[in-house]
Amino acid sequence: MDLATQQRKLLGLFRNADTVCPDDDPYIRCIAQSKHLAEGRRNILLWRVFVLERTCPLTVNLLRRRDLLEETLNDFIARTNIYPFRETQAPAFLDEQCAHSDRMIAVVAQFELALMRVKQGDPRTYVVPWNVEPRAVLNSLARNLPLPDEIQEGAYQILISRDIPRQFQIFSLQEEDGVLT
Amino acid sequence: MAASQNYLDRETSTSVAIGATYEGRDPALLERMLPLVDYVEVTLETISQVNDRGISLSGDIMRELKNIGKEAQIIVHGVSLSIGSHEGWSPTYLRLLDDFLEQVDVAWHSEHLAYTKVDGEHLGIMLAMPKTEEALDMVCERVRAIQERYGIPFLLENTVHVIPDCPSDYSEAGFLNELTDRTGCGLILDAYNLECDAHNHGFDIPAFLDELRHDSVRELHVACGVEHNGILLDVHSQLARNSTVDLAQEVVRRSEGSAQVVVYEFMPEAIPGLGHPAIAEQLRRLRAAFES
Fold first, then answer.
1. What's the pLDDT at A176?
2. E strand or H helix at B177
3. Strand locations in B137-235, DSSP E?
4. Distance CA B277, CA B266 (A)
5. Which residues of B touch A39 (CB under 8 A)?
């Protein structure tokens, strides 16, 4: 088996995208059934968890509480061709979570992605609309506290900009003065 | 682009310098480490950022590294060159390396004897090269090209074997001997990777050490990860075990002066769990172990 064939076959096995044929090289057939392949795939997941826990802790924390972290990450790994550069992973991951069907995951990801961008010098101003009061949610995710049993509903916005102290501000759209933080 | 002559003018000695990983954004850690290390190992993939212009070196971290000045020598250790990919290496990594070497003097640079992508698809993990004649010819050609491009010493590291090796033309040590013989490149021996291979695949470390030509070993790595389902994982999240340090000492002894530095590697994500004091203590212990 030449180098290119071996590497392509192993890529397929690690991506869980290749099936093994009886006429495949015995080495490939052996690896396909090896516990090392399963652990290698797990290793890929672990590396992503390590990196994303540091670079986008709020979204990862919420996904974990929803018991969706592993499933979401496995989908992300299977569908995206991400450079092994640590700092490329969070923007790509958050970008995907911004469209999550769980509204709270989506807005937390939108907030975290916007904050990451302005901290890196992005001059734009971002606005993330929320339909619950954001402070309690963000505070519990940032401090790893349980989410409140009841979260106050309402129309809120988070403004994210490098021109704001701490780079973000929460507004209630129902109150006269509106500024919450 | 200037290389330190210290690397080339080394004196034969059984003691070696100490180095540690630093990935930026933690000035308190750097301040604590600098009195304890002679070398700071930087991974370009970790000190890069993404913006509208693509991937580039972080300006903030580059300023931090330039401020290290004479307190320690910088060495660059890449993870994404993918020197072993059949279709070619990563141009993105080389662009970053070009940029880095324009700004910072380094003692040498290094990579893993491995591949991280296939046909442009990223594996998400690093796989070791098969020890075949085809792979050896290809890697040697690329090593020579890198040596010519940068004109400073280039080292390759033994990678952990995530999966068992395929039947090969060379043994592990035989492959490394041939590689260094043909190209003159140096080696990094990662003692923890050897231990992982022994634990996970029954790799015979004493036989490997007996066969390896140690005069190419310039750098050693010590690290530690965790065990999962009976497999020792190469995740650099723990303090180095005594057995790993003992193994590194054995390699230094055999290298008879060619080994210059032992680097303690830990990933940035592990720092909160390890704590700055424990990292500093690890470096003190390494210094004591490798001073005699």
1. 59
2. helix B172-183
3. 154-157, 186-190, 217-222, 227-228, 231-232
4. 14
5. 162, 228-229, 231, 233
CB nearest B163 (choices: A8, A37, A50): A37
Q: Where are the domains of chain A?
A: 34-172
Q: Crossing angle for the helix pair A3-14 and A35-55, nearest 10 degrees?
A: 70
Residue B78 lies in a domain: yes
* CA gap B129, B153 in Å, rounded: 21
Give domain status of residue B178, yes or no.
yes
Contact by Cβ (8 Å): B269, B254: no
Q: How many domains, chain B?
A: 1
Whole-number Å distance between alpha carbons of A100 and A110: 10
- Is B250 in CB contact (< 8 Å) with chain A? no
With both helix axes pointing from N to C terminus, report the angle between B59-68 and B91-103 in degrees, rounded to the nearest 10: 50
pTM (2 decimals)?
0.89
**How far is residue A73's CA from residue A94's CA, in Å, rounded to a whole number?**
11
Rounded CA-CA distance B278/B100 in Å is 30
Nearest beta carbon to residue A40 from set B115, B125, B138 = B125
pLDDT band at B3 (very low <50, low <70, confident <90, very high): very low
Sort strands B17-21 and B39-42 into parallel, antiparallel or unpaired. parallel
B7 lies in some domain? no
Q: Which residues 6+ apart lie within 8 Å of A90 measured at CB?
A: A51, A52, A55, A56, A116
The answer to whether the CB of B112 falls within 8 A of the CB of B159 is yes
CATH number, domain with residue B225: 3.20.20.150
Which member of A36, A81, A91 has the closest CB to residue B164?
A: A36
| Residue A167: Cβ within 10 Å count | 17
Q: The tokens 């700071």 sit on which residue? A: B40
Min Cα–Cα distance to chain A from B261, Å: 26
The count of CB pairs under 8 A between chains A and B is 120
Test mutation, A5, A43, A47, chain B, max B CBs within 10 A = A43
Q: What is the pLDDT of residues B177-230, one digit of tens each?
A: 999 999 999 999 999 999 999 999 999 999 999 999 999 999 999 999 989 889
Range of the domain at B173: 17-289
| Residue pointed to by tokens 């509204």 | A103
**pLDDT tens column, A157-171:** 999 999 998 899 999
Residue B185 lies in a domain: yes
Q: Nearest to residue B167, comparing CAs of A37, A25, A38, A41?
A: A25
Task: Write the DSSP assignment of A59-84 as a string of letters.
Answer: HHHHHHHTT-HHHHHHHHHHH----S
Which chain B residue lies closest to A52 (C-alpha atoms)? B269
Q: Any CB–CB contact under 8 A between B279 and chain A? A: no
